[in-house]
Amino acid sequence: MRRLLLALPFALLPLAIAQANEDDHHHDHDHAHEEHGSLGAHEHGVARLNAVLDGNSLEIELESPSMNLVGFEHEAHSEEDKAKVAATRAQLEKPAALFGLPAAAGCELAKQELESPLFGDEDDEHHEEEAGHDHEEEHSEIHAHYRFTCNAPEALEGLNLSGLFGTFPATQKIQVQLIGPNGQQGAEANAQNARLNF
């Protein structure tokens, strides 16, 4: 039951955004899904982050256009592009540094999922078909989901996204939904205002 409660905000938020997009763009709903997907508008420089702290469990979900993290959205063909994708993936595999988790909280990574057409995920071909013939450039995204178990969650007063903005400077702002001991809150973070409190 607890896992279901943790998963609920992550499941409902994209559905609510997608529903709002469908209502706004009912007449061209196929085109809206191609360009918008679960993120709402695909806007370079903008990412979304959901974080839930429940007891000793911390879940973080990051969704970003590939342009923000890798510097391009097309499939990596050149050795240089492949190296950029590999470097980005390696950086995303070190979430404690990206989210500024304090050592005192004793947070251990329990689960990690990274998905993107650039990483060679199975939906690559399907994504290319959806892109259609109207535009050559794909609107690819990177989705990262992390679950931590924290030995001292009381020491985890919030997240510090300075590491994320420093590692991926093309990310200009992050729209955040936080759920923690003090309830649910929304915020917008940027490099100058990167600290988020639960």
Describe the structure.
The chain has 198 residues and is α+β, with helices and mostly antiparallel strands. It has one domain (40-197). It is 34% helix and 30% strand. It has helices at residues 2-24, 29-36, 66-69, 79-92, 95-99, 124-131, 162-167, and strands at 46-54, 57-65, 107-115, 141-150, 158-160, 173-180, 183-190, 195-197. It has a 6-stranded mixed β-sheet. The chain has a two-stranded antiparallel ribbon with strand order 5-8. The chain is globular.
Write a brief structural summary.
With about 200 residues, this protein is α+β, with helices and mostly antiparallel strands.
Count of discrete structural domains: 1
Instruction: State the total count of DSSP E strands.
Output: 8
Radius of gyration: 17 Å
Biggest β-sheet: strands ordered side by side in the sheet: 3-4-2-1-6-7
User: What pattern of helices and strands is seen along the backbone?
Assistant: HHEEHHHEHEEHEEE
Protein name: Zinc-binding protein
Pfam family, one: ZrgA
Organism: Pseudomonas indica
Keywords: Signal
Supply the key terms.
198 residues, alpha+beta, six-stranded mixed β-sheet, 7 helices, 8 strands, globular, disordered N terminus
Helix/strand layout:
Elements: H1 2-24, H2 29-36, E1 46-54, E2 57-65, H3 66-69, H4 79-92, H5 95-99, E3 107-115, H6 124-131, E4 141-150, E5 158-160, H7 162-167, E6 173-180, E7 183-190, E8 195-197
Parallel strand pairs: 1-6
Antiparallel strand pairs: 1-2, 2-4, 3-4, 5-8, 6-7
